[in-house]
Structures are given as C-alpha cells and as structure tokens.
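Field reference: sequence -> structure
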Amino acid sequence: MLSLVAGAGLLAGCGAPAVTLAPGVAAADPVCARVLQATPDRLGALERRSTSAQATTAWGADPAVTLRCGVAPTGPTTDRCVNVERPDGTSVDWIQLESDDPNYPANAAEGAGAWAFVTYGRVPAVEVVVPAEHVTGQPTAFLVDLAPAAEVVPAQRACVGVGDVP
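Structure field:
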C-alpha cells in the first residue's frame, strides 16, 4: 500500500515543471507552513503546481499565479490598499504593489504584465502575483479564495483611508 501511495506522488509530479520562485526572507517561519496548508488545491479553475522554494505554491500554466509566504512586510504606504472581506465578516488588507516599487516581485515582470499584492499588517507577509493571462474579471478575485490562508497570520495593523485620519 505504501508503494502505491508513493508511486501516486511520483506520478503527480510528472506534469508541468516546478515553478521557479525565490523564497521570502522569513520563509522558515513556522506560520508559513500553516499558511501553505490553508491554501486551496485549486484556485478558481487553476490546478496547484509544485514550486522550487520553501513556503511557496503556484496554480495554473506558465506564467503561474504564485503565492510566497515570508516576504518582507510593507511599512506605511500610499499604495492602493485592497480590503478583501469574506461573508463571515473577516477581512484581509492587501497592498497592490506598483511595478516601480522595490518590493515588486521579479516573477511579476514575466508575460504580458501582472498584478502583485502583499498582505498589509501581517508578519510574516504573504505575496500573491496574478499574471494577466489568468485574469478573466477582477485581478483581485483570487485574493478572496486566498484570504483564509492569509488570515492564518494574525493582523497587527489595518489599512486606513483619508476618512480614518482625524
């Protein structure tokens, strides 16, 4: 029975090659293992792929949608904050990184453009890159499906808007 299970694992790895990603600076943080365990096997219609680095995962054909846990958290910023609220009332703040941002991930430059998001107010931070090829509606749609995984990291801060500041 054990050889059957091991063989199935080997066959599963024979599909698309692993997505090459750099690990985040805090990829070894134990909370990142829990974040990865909370990610879905399918992201929309995209199937999970193997990756080359600790605390990372990917979905879909090249260029893949990628998630890295343990990236450097963003400090206060004027970049766009996207608040993803789930039906149960929980929410995750994501900063949409601009291509000129020093934290903009190298793999986001592949293909015909991509959107890059990093959690705000959570340490370690989680980064998601959504290539344009996989966007059929809003590029933020995948963030709804990934919110349960991002919520594994407790929120320490939240985005504020102009109306929140006295």
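Note: Residues 16-155 form one domain.
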